[in-house]
Amino acid sequence: LDRVAHTPLKTPTAVASFILDHQAEQLAWLQELQQKVVHSVQLRLEREHYRLERLASTLPLAFGRVRERQEYRLQSLFDRLAQTVRMLLEREKHRLDLLQQRTQSLDPSVLLKRGYSMTLVNGHILTDASQVREGDTLVTQLANGEVESKVIDKC
């Protein structure tokens, strides 16, 4: 696994944890981006609204058409911005969905259903024969149940 992946993770659980952490970071980034966009749009709307009010109060007759054009332009900008934000959010949602699918495929229970098992000694995952001694009790988790074994001899 170390020779293939860019991150040296030894177990499916570690990989799943890494992916979940990465997914959480991406979600936080998206939420922060959304807040920035909303804040920016609100500021822009406030500035444009103030500007239009000022124009309307100083020369209401002369700038009636200008105001209408500016409101239309502002609405167009807002519509384009809203569309862009929707597209960005949809793209990132799709990316998060893909990450979630990857995370689910690396779920230990899915791996167990594929025929793999996890063996524990004293509540810890067994990764090396040097971790056991004669007489130790091993618990092997399978997709459906557990098997308890006793170490008789180490080779």
Describe this structure in words.
- The structure is a single chain.
- The chain is rod-shaped, with a radius of gyration of 29 Å.
- The model has no long low-confidence stretch (mean pLDDT 88).
- Helix 1 packs antiparallel against helix 2 (64-105).
- It is built from 3 helices and 4 strands.
- By secondary structure, it is of the alpha+beta class.
- The relative contact order is 0.10.
- The two termini are 26 Å apart.
- A 4-stranded antiparallel sheet has the order 2-1-3-4, with no helix packed on it.
- The protein has helices at residues 12-58, 64-105, 108-113, and strands spanning 118-121, 124-125, 137-142, 145-150.
Structure in a nutshell:
The chain has helices at residues 12-58, 64-105, 108-113; strands spanning 118-121, 124-125, 137-142, 145-150. It is an alpha+beta fold and 155 residues long. Strand 1 and strand 2 (124-125) form a beta hairpin.
